[in-house]
Amino acid sequence: MRLVLLGPPGAGKGTQAALLSEKLGVPHISTGDLFRANIGEGTPLGVEAKSYIDAGKLVPTDVTARMVKSRLAENDAQEGFLLDGFPRTVEQAEILADHLTEQSLELDGVLNFRIAEDVVVERMLARGRADDNEETIRTRLSVYHDETAPLIEHYGDRIIPIDAEGEVDEINARAMSALGK
Ligand code: ADP
């Protein structure tokens, strides 16, 4: 299955993606995780991405798209993938669509994890990642509203809404059943 996961920062996409990845047998490809791995290893891409991530801003699309395309070219992603964190803008969605079309591939769906804003702020403050301070969280939520939320309309009837409030297992069960599994 080729799926995109959407939702505000802190919606628990990463947690759900890890579970879905295991159950569906396709890799979880998280742009946030890829960036953090590059930052940890001190690669040029990591050095470039770090200042944007620390400020809660989007990393430039050319850098991000190059990283995603090269990850999608790896062996384990040939039969499917769960894309978490990409696309984050309509421009990125168009890049992904072109990339898949070039290979005569299509997305099977877009899971949209829905959650109230006060719950996501609470979750992010609780997990305490380096970019999870109040100022950065505010910036990321505003970037989400301005740049990422329009993807819901962009994807239209390919959107599969998932209620992302509640227990991890409960949310996973909702996602599996929405996928007909
Ligand atoms: P969250 O879902 O909590 O926002 P992520 O791990 O998905 O966290 O992303 C962390 C940061 O990585 C983002 O705030 C942004 O700076 C950068 N990032 C991730 N995905 C993208 C993307 N598709 N385009 C640009 N920047 C991105």
TrEMBL record:
Residues 30-59 are annotated as: NMP. Signal peptide: none annotated. GO terms for biological process: AMP salvage. It is found in: Cytoplasm. AMP binds at T31, R36, K57, L58, V59, G85, F86, P87, R88, Q92, R129, R140. InterPro entries: Adenylat/UMP-CMP_kin (IPR000850), Adenylat_kinase_CS (IPR033690), P-loop_NTPase (IPR027417). It is an enzyme of class 2 (transferase). GO terms for cellular component: cytoplasm. PANTHER family: NUCLEOTIDE KINASE. Catalyzes the reversible transfer of the terminal phosphate group between ATP and AMP. Plays an important role in cellular energy homeostasis and in adenine nucleotide metabolism. NCBIfam families: PRK00279.1-3, PRK14527.1, PRK14531.1. This is Adenylate kinase. It comes from Corynebacterium halotolerans YIM 70093 = DSM 44683. The gene is adk.
